[in-house]
Amino acid sequence: MPFLVERVTEACVEIFMKRQVKTKFVVVAGGVISGVGKGVATASIGKIFKEHGLRTTLIKIDPYINYDAGTLRPTEHGEVWVTGDGGEIDQDLGTYERFIDQDIPKKNNITTGQIYKHVIDRERAGAYLGQTVQFIPHLTDEIIDRLLEASEGFDVAVIEIGGTVGDYENVPFLMALKGLEREIEPHQVAYVLVTYLPVPGHIEEMKTKPTQQAIRMLGEQGIMPDFIICRSQRALDDVRRKKIESFAHIPLENIIAAPDLASVYEMPLVFEQQQLGKKLLEHLQLSIKKEPDWRTWQQRVACAIKPSTRVKIGIVGKYLDIGDYSLSDSYLSICHALKHAGAYHDVGIEIVWIDAKTFEKDAKKVEQLSQFQGIVVPGGFGPTGVEGKMLAIEYARKHNVPFLGLCYGMQLAAVEYGRNVCGLKDAHTTEVNQETPHPIIDILPLQKQLLEEHQYGGTMRLGSYAATIREGTLIHRLYKDAGKMLEGNVVIERHRHRYEVNPLYIDELERNGFLFSGKHKRIDGTMLMEFAEIAQHPFFAATQAHPEFTSRFAKPNPMFAGFVAAAIQLGQNVIFTQKKKNNTKNLQI
Ligand code: GLN
Questions:
Q1: 410 and 291 within one domain
Q2: Does 131 lie in the same domain as 209?
Q3: Considering only CA atoms, which of 301, 303, 318 is closest in space to residue 387?
Q4: Is 202 annotated in the active site?
Q5: Which of 407, 422, 493, 497 does the annotation list as catalytic?
Q6: Are residues 178 and 197 part of one domain?
Q7: Secondary structure of 177-239 in HEC code, one letter for each residue
Q8: Does residue 79 have an active-site annotation?
Q9: Most CB atoms within 10 A, among 136, 297, 435, 456?
């Protein structure tokens, strides 16, 4: 048979065959406006399935043309999330992991850029010879293939479509999902629309009209929602529920209220109160594999909402002066990791953002750090605020304030120690000063080459790396106690950086008390410094990794849990000394 005819015949057979797909799909689309918590709703649905013992995965579709989120500006788009397999991804994958306590690979983030690039690359390579390559079926097929690949082996895949229904850019994805629906059984898909019901201040009434319009726009793609999740300030009342029911033609009980909550982690519980899990399972004809047990989750939520005590943590960062943006979004995973540790220890975490540059302008201002029970120096890039961060590190080191250094935070802690304890004058990282006489932090030769070739996308040291932890150290105790230490004293954390501790300075730093408690051995034998600590300090811990990426609500990361425990300890000491002082005063009176 001539080549072309053979291909066409094969294609026809494929069209008439239903795919043998066992996975069930929940598709979550958003209506009205973005930013109403579609990611949290998706993650909560995933958590509910997992709690019923089902093998669950979560997939995020991002309709932008960027290949991934790695080159997006954190101040505009929020922090970049790093997956275990080294993907630089939109934050939503982070939300999913924090809820369902499961690693989600980079293939679970599908962007328009990836779809077009793959199809065009294949076209150039002659994969579609003779055909006109088109939006339908080539792009839609590619989307379906990726969805099926990501969901293979799972009982259920929850797919979140980024953006809002009605956006031009999410049409290809909705079309693809309709296509997938045709190829599988009707009970294999449930559509969930997450909408927003505003309460305009001047009328004080909850309005359903935007939701009605969102339902209509989804209908234009041939999709009627099976469930509607109504985000709003207050819970939905029966009048609005009825209105939406008659507009969407879905049973009243499938309209789910999702009011603003004190903690996002309460959302799965709010859904369960309305039996969303049971209803979804029935719709998808799925039977449960275990009875859910929400006790730990409920207890953590209770602690997150109403903690017994509080600690004040200062995060000395850099992004404060770039336009109108939310700094906390640039460090979102750190905030969550601190809150996870807080819920675990039943302590409220008050996070205070401190612009590192403040200390550069006036070094005395560093004294303001005395109000904190813990100081975090997070990751970052470039020269801005670097000297200020080092002043903060020096303060924490000298005043015994619990300190957590993350990535750049560890690099700068090493530089600060080199300068002020080892006496290495003008020591620096070559990221900031290439002429420094003591390049304590330097770039690896491979990274140097990539930068020279202007290859910025996806070229850092990314994803999970194993470190061997020295016994008897703080880091060893933290990971061991948390049950996160693998055989052979191995710990795995995720990375996103180019620079490393320069091997030439390791001995000198360690001789002076800056101990590298965890190291990674590269295939070529080079040792990379992964964890550092100072033994004489109550809690001075730093890592080249980003432990915030492996912190989950039900299982806080050991470094954060240890840091918060040390902060509580300091808080108690402060209260104790104050009390003692007061008592003395009383006695004097
Ligand atoms: N700028 C540093 C590096 O590239 C640290 C990066 C980070 O903090 N993520 O090595």
A1: no
A2: yes
A3: 318
A4: no
A5: 407
A6: yes
A7: HHHHHHHCCHHHEEEEEEEECCCCCCCCCCCCHHHHHHHHHHHHCCCCCCEEEEEECCCCCHH
A8: no
A9: 297
Residue 151 has which token pair?
A: 């969901």
Same domain, yes or no, for 406 and 537?
A: yes
pLDDT per residue over 371-417, tens digit each?
999 999 999 999 999 999 999 999 999 999 999 999 999 999 999 99
Residue 5 lies in a domain: no
588 occurs within a structural domain? no
Q: What pTM, to 2 d.p., does this model score? A: 0.90
Q: How many domains is the chain built from?
A: 2
**What is the DSSP pairing of strand 514-521 with strand 527-534?**
antiparallel
Domain-located, residue 186: yes
CB distance 331 to ligand 1 below 6 Å: no
Is residue 160 a contact partner of residue 28, using CB atoms and an 8 Å limit? yes
Residue 380 CB less than 6 A away from ligand 1 = yes
Give the number of other Cβ atoms within 10 Å of residue 515's Cβ: 18
Helix, strand, or coil here: 74?
Answer: helix
Picking from 297, 326, 359, the residue at the C-terminal end of a domain is: 297
Residue among 264, 263, 272, 262 at smallest CA distance from 294: 272
Handedness of CA 474, 477, 481, 482 (dihedral sign): positive
Is the domain of 378 the same as that of 332? yes
Domain carrying residue 520: 308-574
Tell how far the Cα of 407 is from the centroid of ligand 1, in angstroms. Answer: 6
Instruction: Please check whether residue 2 lies inside any domain of the structure.
Output: no
Q: Is 407 a catalytic residue?
A: yes
Mutational test site, ligand 1, from 381, 442, 494, max ligand atoms within 8 Å of CB = 381
Report for 448-462, 533-547, 575-589: range of highest mean pLDDT: 533-547
Domain containing 291 — which CATH number? 3.40.50.300
Edge to edge, the sheet with strand 540-543 lists 347-355, 309-317, 374-377, 403-406, 540-543, 527-534, 514-521, 461-469, 490-497
Q: Are residues 164 and 281 in the same domain?
A: yes
* Residues 43, 106 within the same domain: yes
* pLDDT exceeds cutoff 90 at 477: yes
What is the tens place of the pLDDT at every residue in 64-114? 888 887 666 655 666 789 999 999 888 899 999 999 999 999 999 999 999
Regarding whether 82 and 133 lie in a shared domain, the answer is yes
State whether the beta carbon of 379 lies less than 6 angstroms from ligand 1.
yes
Give the domain-ending residue among 266, 297, 328.
Answer: 297
Cβ of 408 closer than 6 Å to ligand 1, yes or no, is yes
